[in-house]
Design a protein that fits this description.
The protein is mostly helical. It has 17 helices and five strands. Strand 1 and strand 2 form a beta hairpin.
Length: 426
């Protein structure tokens, strides 16, 4: 059925007329459908039906069912798909302002379901209308007794402005939930809380999942396919994080860095990547996405970062000046680290990151040592060298939460950062 912006509770008088002391429902017909629906060219055709009352209040309650049926007829006359009648009735119920109005709409739904039943009944088996699956399914969908939770996921993701990688995670989170809760009607806060507890994941992961589910739920509420007064994903108690972290990433020791570079062997790009990270503290994707236009003689300009604070200028350490010069001259694709391929989300660090993972595993480093551990090594060196925390934050691209430095300061100068970074040695 064609979508529309009509709301039963707004301006109902425009579809109600008083005739001889009785109220009637009326609705005009577009010009392109006049002849098809019965106009003889002399007099305009329009829908009219008695509301069988002299009370305006009752008339307002009853008019919605007629309008729903007429809009379905208009959609059918235009040849538009009419398989969304149930959704229209469901939205009409959601907009109803009184029990009487809801009862009238449900009566229309039952009549429509009966029509479907009689059209699909197996008369030879003496089947009753209530036994016809097509009719029961229509009634359940139209009354909201059965709204499939995951039915609108593709539409929701299509209108989202997040990255493809985030969309993939959101889809995974929503579908994971939908495997347990098939319909909207099954979803309520206590059931969600039990589901969250049963996941057995970290609080950070729970927050991500709940964020996706809240976003999708709001989308369903906008379509009036989820109750507007329900917030089943709010007020959820997060599982307690373990007091002792056994999965926290660890920094490499300073002596490990030359060992890692040497062990990379013939993988020259990986060797260069480790060296650049060790003397800049940059994240892996920041380095892999670094374009030559952002490489100056004395600093690297990081523009592709996961946070706003990550957009910064990092001095080029004396130890990597020759490496940066060589990579700049040899680049064939406009990137400092040339030849890396982007994955489906546009990240150039995916494949080389996995190569580093295989390398550190071969060298028998435990799972808490990852490429990001090099960044922690740089932070550790800066702290042990007495570098002020605000300067270290400017070098590494971290937020500064203090009022003076975080809100008012324009940040450390390149010269100050260069002096601090020079204290990093291996």
């Amino acid at each position: 059925m064609a979508r529309n912006n009509y709301r039963i509770h707004k301006r109902p008088a425009s579809n109600i007329e008083l005739r001889r002391g009785r109220y009637y429902a009326v609705m005009g017909v577009p010009k392109d459908l006049q002849q098809k629906l019965g106009s003889n060219g002399k007099r305009k055709f329009r829908f009219v039906a008695s509301l069988e009352t002299d009370s305006l209040t009752k008339a307002k309650e009853r008019v919605g069912t007629h309008l729903a049926r007429w809009r379905a007829e208009l959609a059918e006359a235009r040849g538009e798909p009419n398989d969304d009648d149930a959704a229209f009735y469901r939205r009409a119920l959601a907009r109803a302002k009184s029990d009487r109005e809801r009862d009238n709409i449900k009566e229309s739904i039952q009549l429509a379901a009966d029509d479907i039943a009689y059209a699909n009944m197996d008369w030879d088996r003496h089947q009753r209308p209530s036994q016809v699956p097509e009719a029961s399914d229509f009634y359940n969908r139209a009354t909201g007794s059965k709204v499939v939770f995951a039915a609108r996921v593709d539409e929701w993701l299509a209108q989202s402005n997040v990255t493809d990688k985030t969309k993939a995670m959101q889809r995974s989170d929503v579908m994971r939930f939908a495997n347990e809760f098939e319909t909207v009607e099954q979803i309520e806060r206590l059931a969600v809380q039990h589901w969250i507890i049963g996941l057995g994941v970290k609080p950070k992961t729970v927050l991500r999942v709940l964020s996706a589910l809240r976003g999708y739920w709001k989308y369903l509420q906008g379509l009036e396919e989820a109750p507007r007064d329900a917030s089943p994903f709010d007020g959820i108690e997060l599982p307690r994080a373990p007091r002792v972290r056994t999965d926290e990433r660890l920094p490499f020791e300073a002596r490990d860095i030359p060992y890692l570079i040497q062990s990379a062997g013939k993988d020259e790009t990986l060797r260069d990547l480790i060296e650049l990270a060790a003397y800049t503290g940059c994240r892996i994707e920041e380095l892999c996405a670094l374009e030559l236009k952002n490489v100056a003689t004395d600093h690297l300009k990081i523009t592709d970062s996961k946070t706003a604070a990550g957009v910064r200028e990092v001095p080029i350490h004396m130890a990597i000046k020759s490496t940066v010069k060589r990579l700049t001259k040899a680049s064939e694709d406009g990137y400092l680290l040339s030849g890396l391929k982007s994955n489906k989300y546009g990240y150039r660090s995916d494949a080389i990151g996995k190569r580093f993972g295989r390398l550190k595993t071969q060298l028998r480093y435990e799972r808490r040592y990852v490429f990001h551990s090099i960044r922690k090594t740089v932070a550790t060196q800066l702290e042990n060298a007495g570098v002020p925390e605000n300067v270290a934050a400017d070098l590494l691209g971290h937020e500064k939460n203090t009022m003076t430095y975080g809100l008012y300061s324009g940040g450390s100068t390149l010269a100050v950062k260069a002096k601090a970074l020079a204290k990093v040695r291996y």
